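Question (not urgent): is this output format expected?
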Amino acid sequence: MRTNHRGLRLIKKYEGLSLHPYCCPANIPTIGYGSCYGLDGKRLTMDHRMITPTEADHLLRREVRHAERQVARLLKVPVTENQFSALTSFTFNVGGGAFQSSTLRRKLNRGEIESAAKEFHRWKYAGGRVLPGLVKRRRAECALFLDS
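Got this back:
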């Protein structure tokens, strides 16, 4: 299964585009649409060179494929395209380890769709504080997840 256009637009919107390295709210060096890895596949540093929009799209596709593989590996139940896309956006943002250990994943794998959807809203913290951007992103992911 692949992330649909709605899922990709959601990721792009909430990650934003930066052609220069910056530190995200969790203080992790980031570039493009939220990539923590440079063009060489190594962990990004603040010394990474500026990238082009084409390179940012390449990094996004690479990171989305990685998140898709993690989601697919951790799901034990069938999901809709929108659910998969919302989960990929979520995993792209929080990481595969966080998705793996999440109550959201456990509830979904038990078939508790509505209860799993409510778990998105719990993931609104970065650096120990609530971020309005994460609140909006989780709301959008939840809406996509529930839109059959």
